[in-house]
From TrEMBL:
Catalytic class of the enzyme: lyase
Annotated source species: Ellagibacter isourolithinifaciens
Protein name: TrpB-like pyridoxal-phosphate dependent enzyme
EC number: 4.2.1.20
Gene3D superfamilies: 3.40.50.1100
Record InterPro entries: TrpB-like_PALP_sf (IPR036052)
Amino acid sequence: MTENAPHRLYLREDQIPAQWYNLRADMPEKPEPIRLPNGAVARPEDLAPVFCDELVAQELDDDTAYFDI
């Protein structure tokens, strides 16, 4: 590689994304659910100490393709 990739990308205000894309919404085969260290499937209350309520909902959502930022 002869050129270095820029370490910063500057966007005009009209270029800043307003939504993020949830790839899982369009996957024909959904990935395994988030698991706890003991192997149990994580519930929303298990993620609450790490994420706010809105992010917990997004992390567990396999159906919504776009989320507003």
